[in-house]
Amino acid sequence: MGKSGASIPDEEWERFLREAEAGSQGAPEEPSARARMVTRRLREETGPPEGWRTHQPARRRRGKGWYAVGLLVAAGLLVVALDPGRVAGWLGSGESAPLAAESERPDQPPATGAAVQLPTVEQPFRGSPAVRWGDGTAGIGLPAARATGWMSKEQVVRALGRTRDFLAASSLDPGVLRGERPEKAIALINPHQQDVQDYLATAFRAPSRENDPLLLFSRFANTKVRPVGDVVKTRGRITYREGKRGAVEVTADVTYVYPVVRTAAGSDEVARTIVRRETVMSWDDPAKVVVKPGTFSLVSYKADTTNGGCDTFTGYLTPEFSAERAAAGPGDGPDVDPYDRSTSVDAGTGEAGDAGCRTATRS
Predict the structure, then answer these.
(1) Are the CB atoms for 316 and 340 separated by under 8 Å?
(2) What is the pLDDT of residues 276-290, one digit of tens each?
């Protein structure tokens, strides 16, 4: 007997030995169905376990049921010892838990928080649904590949990967965000598509409503603002289908959230610019279309921007801060939620156009 506990009376000890030899009535002969199910799930599961019910006092069990529970407890302690960060993520609040990748269009906008929390340099996404979004390309859902049109499954995999490379080079590249020309992204566009090449040449030389580089690329004037940190939050998905002449037509619908501060020394007010782009590209069969290998042809491209400039076509996103917003007053267009991805881009969050300068309900 252990030295820390009181001794057991002889009568009680003899009764225990008799029951142990005969087998306690009702003792389980194997772990319960729930114990076996949970043990199997712990072996197979790669994500956080489902939440348990509220705590109830432990009930004593006899026989092999104790053994199953002991295994579960030991497995839990081992997970904590080997990967405490992962367990901490499981136990984190639902408000900050990362969202799963988007696989289809949501049917409603994300919920609005109970209290407004302003962003800071340390927490630039605070108070925004984007706090739960993915970082960079991690927030862009990719579909499973299958043979489509002229492409084999392996070729579709490469096309989807290059599509995501284009999104990264056009909307996430740190140099491009600082105003540099997006050379890597442009290199992925079919150089034989003359109308698009004309648009690109004009858009960077003389940007206008018709030739606006911001339809495809995210750029800030580094003399005025600079990104906060090195994370851009994203939410979106890539889909594909067979297009014309057996091409693989890929659509990327992604919302990007950019936190910035003024370039002036000592500036710490964080503003967020939110851009949603829908870009449709065609990975053409080179036997049917004149195309440089490894490049795509643009089918369509459009963007909605919040706090990036309304009816201003400088080739750069031009966010406003609190002083400018107070001086400008509300826009003359309808209110819009820039985080609402339940509608198409045409019906969504745009600031410029016939509807006037819209007022964002949140940033």
Answers:
(1) no
(2) 999 999 999 999 999
